[in-house]
Write a structure and sequence with these properties.
Elements (H helix, E strand, L loop, with lengths): L13 H12 L3 H4 L1 H8 L2 H28 L6 H9 L1 H35 L6 H17 L2 H29 L18 H12 L15 H30 L2 H7 L3 H36 L2 H8 L6 H4 L10 H17 L2 H30 L13 H20 L1 H28 L1
Length: 441
């Protein structure tokens, strides 16, 4: 095996990059989180506003990061951007969070969601969800280890398939739904926990758009492909999410969406299309989550791989190796999957998502701010992409994300402290690894 980034095969073009953005964003969130958003917001009106605000923050974030991606088109995504701009310590903490909290936590949560819905679809015992999620993660890890083109093919196919239930629920729900209340529904809902918690829940549904940056080193033309894929992909996602939520609210009463939770979309599909149609839509929902899970497994191992290339993790010699035949970071994939399986066996998926998103958005604030730093550093150097409405767009991303951080600290202090504790645990590991590396030199 070779331990250099440049051995990664450049098999990714615009179609696969776009499918990674859409496929990694549209997954479980749009089907799992509507009830939680309504419960947190306290009414259907405020829930829809939460989706709008979450979408605006995400779109501003994507437009901003697209310029950063354009100037630093390297494998590793957020970790590499932070390291390039703020130095090795901040970069290390970013990579640590992505390697040990965010990436595995998201994969574990998606595995649990997929296993739960698959067990429900076939009428299997709910206890099987862990086993089903585990098997699915392992199968996808093997497929992506065999080559980026295989993972990319799965991603493109799953992305096309997942748009079918989104389209059908949105169109037919808006046209045929008549039992719910689109605006003003609040009776029978639990006491709200605030807009901060509601927007945080939507950010899980919008999460994933940045994963395409993790495979920039495997793109044929990253400076052109990355910004285009991020902007177009997020625009499609935002329209889809608003349409589905409005369709659900027209089809089911708000309190029933909260009550049904993860089964709300399937229940709505059953009302719209009958039992057979509802089951077909449930298959589409499973494909959607399957595709998102594949996108995470395809992209997340590139973070420990990029860290290992810099000798920043224990066993870096192993984790930085690329398979000679497949051209993929197999060992880094194994590490990510092992941690994800650990989370899958002990975690509540909703808590996993909240902790994972909270841990990563702190570093996103630094990434958004880096646009100002890079422009000052590079002066009038020509860019193939510049964030529109500068500096308003980056400021929207920064202020919106900072609001979520403070609101989450207030609404979920225990989970926030868990995320912060694991984050700062990376510091002694960084000092130890750095000391060992200097000693070897």
């Amino acid at each position: 095996m070779q331990n250099t980034e440049f051995q990664l095969k450049k098999d990714i073009g615009f179609v696969v990059a776009l499918s990674i953005v859409i496929g990694s964003v549209i997954g479980s969130g749009i089907f799992m989180k509507p009830g939680k958003v309504i419960a947190a917001a306290g009414s259907s009106d405020m829930a829809l506003w939460a989706w709008v605000i979450g979408g605006i923050i995400t779109l501003a974030s994507g437009l901003t990061i697209a310029e950063v991606c354009n100037q630093i088109p390297k494998t590793g995504g957020l970790y590499v951007y932070i390291e390039e701009v703020y130095g090795s310590t901040m970069g290390y903490l970013t990579g640590w969070v992505q390697t040990f909290i965010y990436g595995p936590g998201v994969i574990g949560a998606l595995g649990l969601y997929f296993g739960s819905l698959l067990a429900g679809f076939f009428g299997w015992p709910s206890e099987w969800k862990i086993m089903l999620g585990l098997v699915t993660i392992i199968i996808l890890a093997i497929a992506n280890s065999l080559g980026t083109k295989y993972g990319g093919f799965i991603q493109a196919a799953a992305t096309a398939g997942k748009l079918v239930p989104i389209f059908l629920i949105a169109i037919f729900g808006l046209l045929m739904g008549n039992t719910g209340q689109l605006f003003g529904a609040s009776s029978g809902l639990p006491t709200s926990t605030g807009m901060g918690a509601a927007i945080l829940a939507t950010l899980w549904a919008y999460d994933g758009w940045m994963l395409v940056g993790f495979v920039a080193g495997e793109m044929r033309n990253p400076a052109k492909v990355l910004p285009k894929a991020i902007v177009i992909g997020l625009a499609v996602v935002m329209i889809a999410y608003l349409s589905v939520n409005m369709a659900l609210l027209k089809t089911l009463p708000a309190q029933e969406i909260v009550l049904f939770g993860e089964k709300a979309a399937g229940t709505a599909a059953g009302q719209l299309f009958g039992e057979f149609g509802g089951r077909l839509l449930s298959i589409g929902i499973l494909i959607s989550i399957f595709g998102t899970l594949n996108a995470k497994i395809l992209t997340m191992p590139r973070v420990p791989f990029a860290m290992a290339l810099r000798s920043q993790l224990p066993a870096s010699n192993l984790l930085s190796k690329v398979h000679p035949s497949f051209g993929t970071p197999v060992n880094a994939t194994v590490l990510t999957v092992l941690i994800a399986v650990f989370y899958l066996t002990i975690g509540d998926p909703d808590r996993l998502t909240d902790i994972s998103i909270f841990a990563i958005i702190i570093f996103l604030i630094f990434a958004f701010t880096s646009v100002f730093i890079l422009r000052k550093k590079n002066g009038q150097e020509k860019r193939t992409y510049s964030v529109p409405l500068y500096p308003v767009t980056p400021l929207v991303a920064i202020i919106g994300t900072a609001y979520i951080v403070f609101a989450t600290l207030l609404s979920s202090p225990v989970d926030s402290l868990y995320a912060l504790a694991i984050t700062f645990l990376g510091l002694p590991v960084y000092w130890l690894v750095s000391k060992t590396s200097k000693h070897r030199k």
